[in-house]
Protein backbone atom coordinates (compact mmCIF):
# COMPACT_ATOMS: atom_id res chain seq x y z
CA UNK A 1 0.00 0.00 0.00
CA UNK A 2 3.01 2.32 0.42
CA UNK A 3 4.56 1.45 -2.95
CA UNK A 4 7.54 -0.33 -1.36
CA UNK A 5 8.62 -3.90 -2.03
CA UNK A 6 11.23 -5.75 0.03
CA UNK A 7 12.70 -8.85 -1.52
CA UNK A 8 15.56 -11.29 -1.31
CA UNK A 9 16.75 -12.47 -4.69
CA UNK A 10 18.95 -15.51 -5.22
CA UNK A 11 20.98 -16.06 -8.38
CA UNK A 12 23.99 -18.29 -8.97
CA UNK A 13 24.37 -19.00 -5.24
CA UNK A 14 24.48 -15.30 -4.27
CA UNK A 15 21.73 -13.45 -2.45
CA UNK A 16 20.77 -9.78 -2.39
CA UNK A 17 18.19 -8.00 -0.27
CA UNK A 18 16.49 -5.09 -1.99
CA UNK A 19 14.16 -2.34 -0.88
CA UNK A 20 12.37 -1.06 -3.97
CA UNK A 21 10.31 2.16 -3.90
CA UNK A 22 7.87 2.48 -6.79
CA UNK A 23 7.18 6.07 -7.79
CA UNK A 24 5.45 4.99 -11.01
CA UNK A 25 5.20 1.97 -13.30
CA UNK A 26 8.03 3.38 -15.38
CA UNK A 27 10.42 4.24 -12.54
CA UNK A 28 11.54 2.77 -9.25
CA UNK A 29 14.40 3.38 -6.84
CA UNK A 30 16.29 0.37 -5.47
CA UNK A 31 18.72 -0.06 -2.61
CA UNK A 32 20.45 -3.46 -2.57
CA UNK A 33 22.83 -5.18 -0.14
CA UNK A 34 24.39 -8.67 -0.18
CA UNK A 35 22.97 -11.12 2.41
CA UNK A 36 24.06 -14.60 3.47
CA UNK A 37 21.10 -16.63 2.17
CA UNK A 38 17.55 -16.48 0.87
CA UNK A 39 16.12 -16.21 4.39
CA UNK A 40 18.45 -13.53 5.82
CA UNK A 41 15.94 -10.75 6.38
CA UNK A 42 18.14 -8.89 8.91
CA UNK A 43 18.53 -5.97 6.50
CA UNK A 44 14.78 -5.30 6.89
CA UNK A 45 14.92 -5.09 10.72
CA UNK A 46 13.07 -2.10 12.12
CA UNK A 47 11.04 -1.65 8.94
CA UNK A 48 7.91 -3.40 10.26
CA UNK A 49 8.04 -5.81 7.29
CA UNK A 50 5.48 -8.59 6.95
CA UNK A 51 6.25 -11.71 4.90
CA UNK A 52 3.36 -12.21 2.48
CA UNK A 53 4.79 -15.10 0.46
CA UNK A 54 7.38 -16.21 -2.06
CA UNK A 55 7.68 -15.71 -5.80
CA UNK A 56 9.97 -17.68 -8.06
CA UNK A 57 10.97 -16.22 -11.42
CA UNK A 58 12.55 -17.97 -14.37
CA UNK A 59 13.98 -15.38 -16.76
CA UNK A 60 15.05 -15.54 -20.41
CA UNK A 61 16.88 -12.43 -21.53
CA UNK A 62 17.94 -10.91 -24.84
CA UNK A 63 20.23 -7.90 -25.08
CA UNK A 64 20.16 -6.19 -28.46
CA UNK A 65 23.17 -4.29 -29.90
CA UNK A 66 21.06 -1.11 -29.75
CA UNK A 67 21.07 -1.22 -25.93
CA UNK A 68 17.54 -2.58 -25.59
CA UNK A 69 17.24 -5.33 -22.97
CA UNK A 70 14.21 -7.60 -23.23
CA UNK A 71 13.39 -10.17 -20.53
CA UNK A 72 10.59 -12.73 -20.49
CA UNK A 73 9.75 -13.82 -16.95
CA UNK A 74 7.74 -16.82 -15.80
CA UNK A 75 6.55 -15.96 -12.28
CA UNK A 76 5.23 -18.64 -9.93
CA UNK A 77 3.51 -17.54 -6.71
CA UNK A 78 0.46 -18.27 -4.56
CA UNK A 79 -0.81 -21.20 -6.67
CA UNK A 80 -0.57 -19.28 -9.94
CA UNK A 81 1.81 -18.71 -12.85
CA UNK A 82 2.00 -15.55 -14.90
CA UNK A 83 4.31 -14.18 -17.54
CA UNK A 84 5.82 -10.75 -17.94
CA UNK A 85 7.77 -9.03 -20.68
CA UNK A 86 10.18 -6.37 -19.44
CA UNK A 87 11.94 -3.95 -21.73
CA UNK A 88 14.67 -1.60 -20.60
CA UNK A 89 16.05 0.95 -23.02
CA UNK A 90 17.53 4.42 -23.27
CA UNK A 91 14.88 7.16 -23.61
CA UNK A 92 15.97 7.83 -27.18
CA UNK A 93 14.76 4.32 -28.19
CA UNK A 94 11.25 4.50 -26.73
CA UNK A 95 9.67 4.78 -30.20
CA UNK A 96 11.54 1.68 -31.41
CA UNK A 97 10.39 -0.26 -28.33
CA UNK A 98 6.80 0.80 -28.95
CA UNK A 99 7.18 -0.58 -32.48
CA UNK A 100 8.50 -3.87 -31.05
CA UNK A 101 5.46 -4.12 -28.77
CA UNK A 102 3.13 -3.54 -31.71
CA UNK A 103 4.92 -6.28 -33.65
CA UNK A 104 4.51 -8.69 -30.73
CA UNK A 105 0.81 -7.81 -30.43
CA UNK A 106 0.25 -8.45 -34.15
CA UNK A 107 2.09 -11.83 -33.91
CA UNK A 108 -0.10 -12.90 -30.97
CA UNK A 109 -3.24 -11.96 -32.90
CA UNK A 110 -2.06 -13.57 -36.16
CA UNK A 111 -1.35 -16.85 -34.35
CA UNK A 112 -4.72 -17.01 -32.59
CA UNK A 113 -3.60 -16.16 -29.05
CA UNK A 114 -6.53 -13.82 -28.53
CA UNK A 115 -6.93 -14.38 -24.76
CA UNK A 116 -3.18 -13.96 -24.29
CA UNK A 117 -3.34 -10.83 -26.44
CA UNK A 118 -6.17 -9.39 -24.35
CA UNK A 119 -4.27 -10.09 -21.10
CA UNK A 120 -1.06 -8.71 -22.57
CA UNK A 121 -2.64 -5.48 -23.79
CA UNK A 122 -4.33 -4.94 -20.44
CA UNK A 123 -1.05 -5.35 -18.55
CA UNK A 124 1.20 -3.20 -20.76
CA UNK A 125 2.23 -0.36 -18.45
CA UNK A 126 -0.64 -1.23 -16.06
CA UNK A 127 0.80 -3.52 -13.39
CA UNK A 128 3.93 -4.73 -11.65
CA UNK A 129 4.81 -8.18 -10.35
CA UNK A 130 4.22 -7.04 -6.78
CA UNK A 131 0.79 -5.60 -7.66
CA UNK A 132 -0.25 -8.89 -9.29
CA UNK A 133 1.15 -10.84 -6.32
CA UNK A 134 -0.88 -8.82 -3.80
CA UNK A 135 -4.04 -8.89 -5.93
CA UNK A 136 -3.74 -12.70 -6.03
CA UNK A 137 -3.11 -12.87 -2.27
CA UNK A 138 -6.15 -10.70 -1.61
CA UNK A 139 -8.31 -12.89 -3.87
CA UNK A 140 -7.16 -16.09 -2.12
CA UNK A 141 -7.97 -14.64 1.29
CA UNK A 142 -11.37 -13.29 0.39
CA UNK A 143 -10.17 -9.70 0.38
CA UNK A 144 -8.16 -9.84 3.63
CA UNK A 145 -4.39 -9.86 4.11
CA UNK A 146 -2.95 -12.24 6.70
CA UNK A 147 -0.45 -10.73 9.13
CA UNK A 148 2.36 -13.31 9.54
CA UNK A 149 3.59 -11.59 12.73
CA UNK A 150 0.65 -12.85 14.81
3D structure, described in words:
With 150 residues, this protein is an alpha+beta fold. The chain contains 3 helices and 6 strands; from the N terminus they run E-E-E-E-E-E-H-H-H. The protein has a 3-stranded antiparallel sheet, with no helix packed on it. It has a 3-stranded antiparallel sheet with strand order 4-5-6. Strand 5 and strand 6 form a beta hairpin. The longest helix has 17 residues.
Q: Radius of gyration from the CA trace?
A: 17 Å
Residues in helices, as a percent range: 25-40%
Largest sheet: 3 strands, antiparallel
Structural class estimated from helices and strands: alpha+beta
Strand order of the largest sheet: 1-2-3
Shape: globular
Q: What are the secondary-structure elements, in order, as H or E? A: EEEEEEHHH
First-residue to last-residue Cα separation? 20 Å
Q: What is the average per-residue confidence, as pLDDT, rounded to a whole number?
A: 82
Can you tell me the residue ranges where pLDDT is under 50 for at least 5 consecutive residues? Answer: 146-150
Number of helices: 3
Total E-strand runs: 6
**Estimated share of beta-strand residues:** 35-45%
Amino acid sequence: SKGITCRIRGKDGRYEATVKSHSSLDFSDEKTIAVSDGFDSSVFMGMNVILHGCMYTDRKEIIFPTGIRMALDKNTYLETVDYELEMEYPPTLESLCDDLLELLISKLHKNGFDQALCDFQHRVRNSTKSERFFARKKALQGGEFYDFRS
